[in-house]
Structure prediction request, 758 residues.
Amino acid sequence: MRRLCKLWMLILLLLSMMTGCTQNRREPDRLAFDMGEGLDLTDDGKLEVSFQIAIPAGLSGGQDSGGGGTDKSFELTSATGINVSDAMRNMQKKLSRELFPGHREVVVIGQPLAEKGIGHLLDQFVRNPRSELRSKLFVVKDAQAKKILSKKSVFEPYMSIALKRQEDVLSLHYMYFRDFMADTFTEGVHPSAPAIALTADSKPYYYGIAVFNKTNGLKLAGFLDDQESVYTNWMTGRQSSFDYSLNIAGKEHDNISLYFTNLEYRVHTRIVNKQIKVDLYLTGSGTVAENNTNLNPAMRKELRLLENIINSKIQKEVQQLIKKVQQQYHSDIFRFGEALHYQHPRQWHKFKGRWDNYFSELQVSVKVKMKCKTPGQVTAPVELK
Amino acid sequence: MRSKGYMVLSGIQLFWLIQIINWSLVFPFIKQVVVISKQDAWISIALGGMAVAVFSYLLARLRLYNPNQSLVQFCQRVLGRWFGRVVVLPYFIAWILICSMMLRYSGEFIHSTLLDRAPEWIIMLIIVILMVFLTSGGIGGIGRFNDIVGPLFFAVIFATFFLNMQNIRWGRLLPVYYDTGWLTIIKGTVPHAPLFAGGSMLLLVLIPFMNNEAKKASAWSLRAVALCSITFVIITVLGISVFGPSMAAKMQDLYFSYSRSVDIMDFIQNIDTFIFSLWIFGITSTLSIYLFVISYETAQWLRIEDWRVVIWIVTPIIFITALISPVATIFDLFFSLWNYVLFPVCGLLIPLILWIASIIQKAHNHQIKNVEE
Prediction:
């Protein structure tokens, strides 16, 4: 018992020492919460990191209550440096609270920097123990990242959260920074990330996909637009539904819109006479959302006709997309190399080193089989004849 | 041998004890297997687990030749007074090293993730104080502690299995086997199995405290190793399918990073804090077990009546070794020492000698008996 008392005394003594020397105080009112980071290249070629820092007072205030001290919900602070940590340190000089990256929602990369290559910037995001593994990655088309982060969102207090919710609405799977890195280190895959652009009146919108090429320094190879990225996401399992509108029989007023769900894909690779052949199967089921054609989706025959038109159109567009990426970007973002690796692990070593060359000349046959399952609430088209 | 109430270990306590040692000691180093056998790391770990299961079973059986004496007494009886004492020395080295290495690792880990402004020695000192406190309660006290922490630890680990489902891409585990081949897969067991088996080596000391449950020790340790291997395999599979083999190999602690990537509906996040606190419990328990084992056997070796006195000699040695060992680079050194020297000697060679000697002795005793009759 006496021994126990002595031990407790010692522990208490040590605990009292602890309070003095640790200074590990991390009360929320001493921290600057970093909601999003923007990486940019300045005009004179330096790395500039922008931090979107939450202002809690601006959050609680709101518009009608007027109780908050400020109407701004965030402050965008930028600093240059030789790397991310250095910029962070330089930025800290401008802030009276310690920067806390644990709530970082997004990492946004500006086009100039992405074109120069981001291969040398990856380390910090996973090394720093206080860094966040749940940050999502975006690339900005034709602008600096800080331009996006400085915009006010309509609904969300921060642009970083708005970017994330935009992906939710479009039923896209997040591209986490760690996923991007995992793709970078996987054989037979080139990474890609969602792209944001600014409209003419400088409002951010979801543009499509930024294609990277990791062969030398992880550089931006180009962008894919909205429809192309739907197909790309579909082929890589990153999207579960999409809206599709098309003209039928070339007439302007004969158009139909569908909402496709249950998107499935299957990549089958074959090696025939040392030639690689890829068969891509795309399936899904759709609901008619708007029908301005003479076709009645409730009629079996007309439905088949409709499905055939849609299938051949999608098939053609996917073929074109694959050709475009093969010839312009030379980056296998469709994960065909990965599929070949998994399906022919014994032969993979023959192609591994020169996969980019093989990818550019790959023969891909696309088969699309979409089904219109529900015609919507009306059957025959509602139209004034 | 002093046998008061607090020096008794029950079967289920042994089960949790082995479990906790392995969770807190081996989990942080699973990543080293991924470095070698990439996406097939889980096969390496499963193979290693099977080997360790056999190893633990045999070790427990060996100990049951003489379940009532301490390890030092057992060695002396089987191998003679002088040689028996020498043979135990490698165990002291192994245990002191593993203890200081773990202390250093946990100090560093807590320092880097939680208390980055506290000096490391203070963090380590606090762990040491906890460890001394727990050890002074005897093995029974540690056993009770494990009774509480073990199921809690397991519940949290079990829960994390299901929390990352939306981040999993099973494709990252492919292709199975072809990229690595058997040789690499077996090489992958090297950084894992010896450390894993290190926990089972404690059976040599702990079985005498199990009194009437000693006979079941081999069954309990087998169950513990089996459950542990299953959790290791599951975590490796999940970790690789979340991060991909090449990223997983770059992580410092695969399981911790795995738990940090959990994000369900923006609501269930940061579960790493639970794991972190339980891991600190686990580390405290693990270090106390080692400290107990070293102190108790040293007391036997030096023929000191009260083993608790030895705690005050052993603890500073562990603390100072941990303090002076160079940061970060020590682990490589420790692992090559443990995998290629200490484990083969303490885990395989000495038990083998003991086993052969025990059989010979038994046969000899039998003969004498027959002659006398």
Summary: DSSP finds 16 helices and no strands in chain B.
